[in-house]
Amino acid sequence: MSEEFLKLLSASQRTLDEGFSHLPPNPAPSLGEAASAILQRVAERLHDNYPYAHPLYAGQMLKPPHPIARAAYSLAMSINPNNHALDGGRASSAMEVEAVAAVAKMFDWPQHLGHLSSGGTFANLEALWVAGQLVPGKAIAASDQAHYTHSRISTVLGLPFVTVPSDATGRMDLTALEHLLATENIGTVVVTLGTTAIGSVDPLDQILALRKKFSFRIHVDAAYGGYFTLAANLSPKTRSAFDAIPHADSIVIDPHKHGLQPYGCGCILFRDPAVGRFYKHDSPYTYFSSKDLHLGEISLECSRAGASAVALWATQQLLPYTPGGAFAQGLESGRNAALNLYERLTKSAHFVTPSAPPQLDIVFWTPSASTPDASSALAEAIFDETAKNDLHLALAQLPTRFFSRDKWENLAISDQKSTVTCLRSVLMKPEHLLWLDHIWQRLYAAAVKVSTVNTSIEPA
Ligand SMILES: *Cc1c(COP(=O)(O)O)cnc(C)c1O
Questions:
Q1: Measuring from atom 6 of ligand 1, which residue has the nearest CA?
Q2: Shortest-distance atom of ligand 1 to CA 192
Q3: Residue 454 banded pLDDT, cuts 50, 70, 90
């Protein structure tokens, strides 16, 4: 933790406290000697973690919150506002409204109804709940690469769920979707812009075109990928999908994934503010201080951390959502790192890569071997070996159909349903690009160590 951070925090805390200094003093009780010992133990217990904030952590979808988010969150915690009602947090509710409007503006939505949530799961639950209220009993459809939460949420809501197959690049298969729209009673299609496993982007623009023939609602799950709409280095196909977002009915984005926020910050937006009517409820004890909208009147969750809204608002002031700005450049940098790693992997005889480059900033690959089972065993060995050398990757069980069939000897057509253990790297941190040589050297050394492939002529 830097000196600068603590200094900024204590100066702003003083200003905050001054606002309440007219009250009779009510000093906080001393923490006592035990507190120091307990916090030391906490610090030691927290060593039992991967070093998520370091660029050599290049595994799962984990990105450290920005220091300004941490500082603003801590500051707000001394008030601990509850954004359920204006009675519980006036300033933080106003900041939530502004922060959510900034997210809507990023997607070029001229109007919206929306709010923050505890995360992407709850935001998606609200989107599908509203969808179910509009067309009761009709099915939710999502691709086999969509987050598993959608089928589970459909069960919670008592709505039928239909799985749409994905193609070899992990995008929703349009022909399959069209067939399902013609034969099943589908009310809502969940379009994932940035799947959790491989960052694939469903062709939203082409799915929208199907609305000329069929009537259905479109919910965009951009919990992971939403912020990439600001990136200038997407492929034309991916760009077209993001550019179609203004025509969707609802969208979910997770500021706690790519938006530099601590956990507990998802966001749901509806294009038609009139869906607010479904949230209507009477509470005999909640809303008294104002006739203005209380966020609890348009949210399924009741108590929510106002500190999340304050942290998001502060981060947006420092790093606004402008194309070409510092925040957008951070996303572009991670994507360049992913393309760079993919290229190195593709050139190396040690590894097997999918036929298409990453669509966002997630890369997956598997070690070269004669069969998928042998590749899987090597993937696990490399995962362990790189970890010993402080490079942390992730493992993922992915369909062999994501790779071309000639990557393994004798892979029969029937095996195309099979899976292979892959190494996976989510290059979410802007610094990953600068650290790519280090990452590659450690990965390469691990591959050489566990490999049986003779690549002695290959340059490292
Ligand atoms: C992470 C994710 C979710 C779930 O969001 P949480 O914030 O983890 O609850 C849903 N959909 C997609 C595409 C995701 O990446």
A1: 120
A2: 13
A3: low
Which domains are assigned to the chain? 77-280+290-318 (3.40.640.10), 326-451 (3.90.1150.10)
C-beta of 427 in contact with ligand 1 (< 6 A): no
The model carries a pTM of 0.96
Short-list 82, 60, 84, CA closest to 199: 60
The confidence score (pLDDT) of residue 455 equals: 53
Specify the pLDDT at position 42.
Answer: 98
Q: Which amino acid is at 384?
A: D
- Per-residue confidence (pLDDT) for residue 60, from 0 to 100: 98
Neighbours of 33 (CB within 10 A): 8
pLDDT tens per residue across span 411-426: 765 565 799 999 999 9
CA of 428 to the centre of ligand 1 (A): 15
Q: Phi and psi (nearest 5°) for 191? A: -105, 120
Mutate to test the pocket of ligand 1, among 143, 149, 191 (most ligand atoms within 8 A of CB): 149
For the chain, the residue count is 460
pLDDT band for position 287 (cuts 50, 70, 90): confident
Cβ–ligand 1 distance for 224 under 6 Å, the answer: yes
Q: Is the dihedral of CA 306, 52, 235, 356 positive or negative?
A: negative
Span from the CA of 224 to the centroid of ligand 1 (angstroms)? 6
Ligand 1 centroid vs 148 CA: distance in angstroms? 9
Give the strands of the sheet with 419-426, arranged side by side: 351-352, 362-367, 419-426, 394-399
Whether 366 is in the pocket of ligand 1, judged by its Cβ within 6 Å, is: no
Residue whose CB lies within 8 A of the most ligand 1 atoms, among 116, 196, 258, 261, for a mutation test: 196
Q: Is 117 in the pocket of ligand 1 (CB under 6 A)?
A: no
User: pLDDT tens digits for 223-238?
Assistant: 999 999 999 999 999 9
Note whether 70 and 262 are within 8 A (CB).
Answer: yes
Residue 318 burial class via C-beta count within 10 angstroms: exposed 0-12, middle 13-18, buried 19 and up: middle
DSSP structure string for 293-306: PPGGGG-S--S-BH
pLDDT in tens, 109-144: 989 999 999 999 999 999 999 999 999 999 999 999
Q: How many CB atoms lie within 10 A of CB 42?
A: 9
| φ, ψ dihedrals at 457, nearest 5° | -90, -5
pLDDT value of residue 20: 95
